[in-house]
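Q: My labmate handed me this sequence with no annotations at all. I'd like to see what the chain might look like in three dimensions before we decide whether it's worth expressing. Could you predict it?
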Amino acid sequence: MPQEPKKRHSRQRQGKRRASIHLTLARTVSCLNCGADILTHQICPACGFYKGKQVIKKKDKDKDNKEQKALPENTQEKTK
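A: Here is what I predict for the chain of 80 residues:
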C-alpha cells in the first residue's frame, strides 16, 4: 500500500514550504565593449564580443541600410 500522510498540513505550514520555491531574476552584466546588458558567460548579441575579444562579426545595420538605399538609385542611373 502507498504511504499516506497521517495528518493534514495547515495552510500556514503549506505556505512556509512554498515560500522558498520562487523564480529568481537572471543575473546580467554589462558588456565590456558596448555596455549592453547581457547574461553572464554569453556572447553579446549587440556587438559579438565575449571577454573583450570579438567572437562573431556583426554587420552594422546603418551601413547595410545605406547600401541598400544607394543601390536602387545607382541602378536607375545605369538604365537611363
